[in-house]
Amino acid sequence: MSDRGFLTYREPDSSSTSAPIPRLTTKVVQLLVLISFFVLLNVGEWLASKAFRAGLIGQIVVGLVYGRPLANILDIAWQHTFIALGYLGLVLIIVEGSLAVRLDLLKANFVLSVFAACIGILAPIGLSFLALYLGFGYGAVETFICGAALSSTSIGTTFVVLGQASSAVAFADTKVGSVLISAAVFDDVAGLAMASVIEQLSDDAGRLGWLIGRPILASVLMAALTPLLTKFAFAPLFRHLEPPRGHWANMSLMVGVLCAFLAIAAYAGTSLLFGAFLAGTFLAYLENEPGRFMKTYAKYVLDVQQYLMQPIFFASIGFAIPFKSLWSGRAVWRGVVYALLMVIGKVLVGTVIPLWDVLRHKGTLRERTSGTLWPSVLLGGAMVARGEIGLLIIQIGFNKTAYLSQDALITAIWAILLNTVIGPVAVGFLVKYKAQEIGTSQWGIQKHGSGEQSEVSVNASNVEAGNG
């Protein structure tokens, strides 16, 4: 089938691939365009942070304007380059967040996180069939593709919003933050597994079982084997050998571990982002001193991530939005209706918090649900943003299969865009006014097993880069 994507890659002419690229002077117009692009990315982030408490919205808008959807100011080759760099930025965002994750909280809240993730996957798909299949008359497979795209959660956006929204509370040390991060990772893994299935829908049906089972099996095995091997093999060996200390030794180990996990995830058939998350948790478990790798990350990587790679990542989301096709009356009302249903589908994830307290504690209903309102709203609201994963899945369905129509594509993109805006804005304002209340509730800051307070925040900028 022909490629109908918004940014389609063209292979270079094979006859010229062996020739060296001539060294030419960059034209002044191209140089000025690049300078203005990077300046406006940071200006847009600052303005959106002031207006909406979500700076990533400004960066997406800049990408929309400079990319092919609107003005197409950047060369297509540059846009492809920034998409690749943006994905690397997303990997770095996830590594930063996973380095700060409390492993004891991940373990303690694993069952609850799985329950939350299941709601976050099944509710959007179910509501999609209600709206698109029964309401708008789309096909069943077409509806499933849209539901799969909207069942994802942008884990990169989740980390960024929580990191930027409040410096008063270290959300990595909260119970609700632990559940949120785990559920977002599970939803991303499930979404990318469904993406691999969607990509192969036109293949032989006899392989469908393996296509579905492979990414799920690979993810389960990696999730199970990584902590076991780390605890009983790598961590004892690491502490016995006492490798060289210092930032350069730490950086070498971090790069090696990240590349290894990315390669394993890719060849096993699961998500690269899941591999990046496991790499960060692996390094966090190896630490024989608190914050060892986070201090190195903050000193050598964090500034590049925050001021270069992260803005490029959110701008690359803007490159993939078919903005001009969104503005017919039919597309707008269908997109808005579907978007609101998809907000509800993810907000429902927050109901696991009061339900969990009702099932596990004794007393009156009011006593058991006391203090759960704002943690529930935070969990549900932070799961709303779809971002890059949703756009990836819907474009795979449109470009690689014959099932998804242009009408359904536009409806789904409306929902993805509105959710990616609504989620961060809502969480930004919630955390601004309710961070302390959430942090002091039973779903807030948790002590370590030893009774010591965690020293590592999800926002690595709180780490003193000069220490260690």
Automatic annotation (TrEMBL):
<dbReference type="GO" id="GO:0016020">
    <property type="term" value="C:membrane"/>
</dbReference>
<feature type="transmembrane region" description="Helical">
    <location>
        <begin position="377"/>
        <end position="398"/>
    </location>
</feature>
<dbReference type="Pfam" id="PF00999">
    <property type="entry name" value="Na_H_Exchanger"/>
</dbReference>
<feature type="transmembrane region" description="Helical">
    <location>
        <begin position="28"/>
        <end position="47"/>
    </location>
</feature>
<feature type="transmembrane region" description="Helical">
    <location>
        <begin position="253"/>
        <end position="286"/>
    </location>
</feature>
<feature type="transmembrane region" description="Helical">
    <location>
        <begin position="111"/>
        <end position="134"/>
    </location>
</feature>
<feature type="transmembrane region" description="Helical">
    <location>
        <begin position="216"/>
        <end position="238"/>
    </location>
</feature>
<keyword id="KW-0812">Transmembrane</keyword>
<feature type="transmembrane region" description="Helical">
    <location>
        <begin position="410"/>
        <end position="431"/>
    </location>
</feature>
<feature type="domain" description="Cation/H+ exchanger transmembrane">
    <location>
        <begin position="47"/>
        <end position="432"/>
    </location>
</feature>
<dbReference type="GO" id="GO:1902600">
    <property type="term" value="P:proton transmembrane transport"/>
</dbReference>
<feature type="transmembrane region" description="Helical">
    <location>
        <begin position="307"/>
        <end position="323"/>
    </location>
</feature>
<dbReference type="InterPro" id="IPR006153">
    <property type="entry name" value="Cation/H_exchanger_TM"/>
</dbReference>
<protein>
    <recommendedName>
        <fullName>Cation/H+ exchanger transmembrane domain-containing protein</fullName>
    </recommendedName>
</protein>
<keyword id="KW-0813">Transport</keyword>
<feature type="transmembrane region" description="Helical">
    <location>
        <begin position="77"/>
        <end position="99"/>
    </location>
</feature>
<keyword id="KW-1133">Transmembrane helix</keyword>
<keyword id="KW-0472">Membrane</keyword>
<dbReference type="InterPro" id="IPR038770">
    <property type="entry name" value="Na+/solute_symporter_sf"/>
</dbReference>
<keyword id="KW-0406">Ion transport</keyword>
<feature type="transmembrane region" description="Helical">
    <location>
        <begin position="140"/>
        <end position="162"/>
    </location>
</feature>
<feature type="compositionally biased region" description="Polar residues">
    <location>
        <begin position="451"/>
        <end position="468"/>
    </location>
</feature>
<dbReference type="GO" id="GO:0015297">
    <property type="term" value="F:antiporter activity"/>
</dbReference>
<feature type="region of interest" description="Disordered">
    <location>
        <begin position="449"/>
        <end position="468"/>
    </location>
</feature>
<keyword id="KW-0050">Antiport</keyword>
<feature type="transmembrane region" description="Helical">
    <location>
        <begin position="335"/>
        <end position="356"/>
    </location>
</feature>
